[in-house]
Structures are given as structure tokens and as C-alpha cells.
Amino acid sequence: MSHEFSENDWRRLIASLGEDPDRPGLVETPHRVAKAWKHWTSGYEQNPVELLKAFEDGAEQYNEFIIVRGIPVYSHCEHHLAPFFGKATIGYIPNGKIVGLSKLTRLVDCFAKRLQVQERMTMQIANALMEVLEPKAVGVIVKCRHLCMESRGIRTPGEETVTSAMLGELQPNLAMRTEFLSLAKD
Ligand SMILES: Nc1nc2c(ncn2[C@@H]2O[C@H](COP(=O)(O)OP(=O)(O)OP(=O)(O)O)[C@@H](O)[C@H]2O)c(=O)[nH]1
Ligand SMILES: [Zn+2]
């Protein structure tokens, strides 16, 4: 199924705003916007399980947190199609299987490039890691600014929404949670 908006759909949208879609500045806009939305929703075409490509850890068996901080998040909220953006931190304690570090960033992007709510995106990232790596623990923290809240509606510029998912041993183990939160701190 194609979920690509055609150029004509965007042309109609521009006209419905009272604009002239044929004026020079707007003539190429439907084409550009169709291309941009294809990019912003490209996550639907990615399979998180395939992109993670786990491999066996060597004989040394790393047994502590692997944490990547500052992973960029660019998504759109499913309520208003408005951007929300910020950073994610991912940490996991492996159980024999690890992934290339760049794959964590790719995983975030795969779920961010869909219509989302921040809570679901956070859980999807954590669940995918649990499923593929079967690690001892997974922690995900996402901090985002939502333009639907900042530029309209409640209008709260600069407000940050923080969500987290703690799976595996992170759930019952308070000491492990404290360690993760301290390593995750910017
Ligand atoms: N839980 C959650 N809510 C979100 C997210 N992004 C946007 N929202 C909220 O989605 C809600 C939609 O509320 P509605 O009352 O249906 O729509 P609305 O009249 O445009 O709401 P206002 O934004 O309050 O003007 C708003 O409260 C938004 O702040 C998100 O990622 N997670
Ligand atoms: Zn919104």
C-alpha cells in the first residue's frame, strides 16, 4: 500500500488555505512537500528487527551498561502532524548479543519517522531491543519539544516532555536504575 501523498493532494491543500498554488513561489512546493513527507514517514518501510543486525559478543563478554546519549529524534505527532524533536538515550546490558552502535541511532530514526506519540515511540524502541538482543536490561529515555504545544494550543515555548522505558532487570532492580540514570545524565 502506498502511503505517499500525491503532489495533487498537496496542491489542493495549498489552495484550501486560500493561496494560489500557481504563483511562482509555490509551483514546486507540492513536489517538494510530497518528497519531504516521504522522508518523514520512511520509518514505515524499515524493519527494526532487520536493521538491528545483532552479533555475538566475543570471549570477554561485556557485562555492563552500553549507553549512547544524544541520539537525535525528529518525529511528527499523530494528533496535529506537527514536529516534535529532541534527544534519546539508550542503554542496555547485553546477554551475549550486541549491536553496532550506529544501529541504535537507526532504530530511533525508524520509529521516529512515523506518525507518533512520544510514549509509544519510547516503548517501541525499548521493545525492539528486548526482542532482538534479549539483553539483561534495556533503558530508553526520550526528551522532546512538541511544536503543537509550543506554537499553538497551550503555547508553552521551551517545555520539554520526558518519557522513559525500563525493561528487564531495570524494572525491579533499584540500584541498576540508579546507575543507568546517573550514566544517562547529560
Ligand atoms: N500523550 C501525548 N500527547 C501528545 C503528544 N503530542 C501531542 N500530544 C497532545 O495531544 C493532545 C490532543 O488533544 P485534543 O484535545 O484532541 O486536540 P487539541 O484540541 O488540538 O488540543 P490542544 O493541543 O490542547 O489545543 C494535546 O493535549 C497534545 O498536547 C504525545 O507525544 N503524547
Ligand atoms: Zn500534536
Low-confidence stretches: none
The fraction of residues assigned to DSSP E strands is 25-35%
Shape: elongated
Mean pLDDT: 95
CATH fold label of the largest domain: GTP Cyclohydrolase I, domain 2
Q: Could you give the count of β-strands?
A: 7
Distance between the termini: 41 Å
Distinct small molecules: guanosine-5'-triphosphate, zinc ion
Number of domains: 2
Short description:
The protein is of the alpha+beta class and 186 residues long. It contains eight helices and seven strands, in the order H-H-H-H-E-E-E-E-H-E-H-E-H-E-H.
How would you describe this structure to a colleague?
It comes from Duganella callida. One of its GO terms (molecular function) is zinc ion binding. Keywords: GTP-binding, Hydrolase, Metal-binding, Nucleotide-binding, One-carbon metabolism, Zinc. This is GTP cyclohydrolase 1. With 186 residues, the protein is of the alpha+beta class. The protein has 2 domains: 34 residues, no CATH class; 136 residues, GTP Cyclohydrolase I, domain 2. Helix content is 40%, strand content 25%. Helix 1 crosses helix 3. The longest helix has 16 residues. The radius of gyration is 20 Å and the shape is elongated. The structure holds guanosine-5'-triphosphate (GTP) and zinc ion. Guanosine-5'-triphosphate binds next to helix 6 and helix 7.
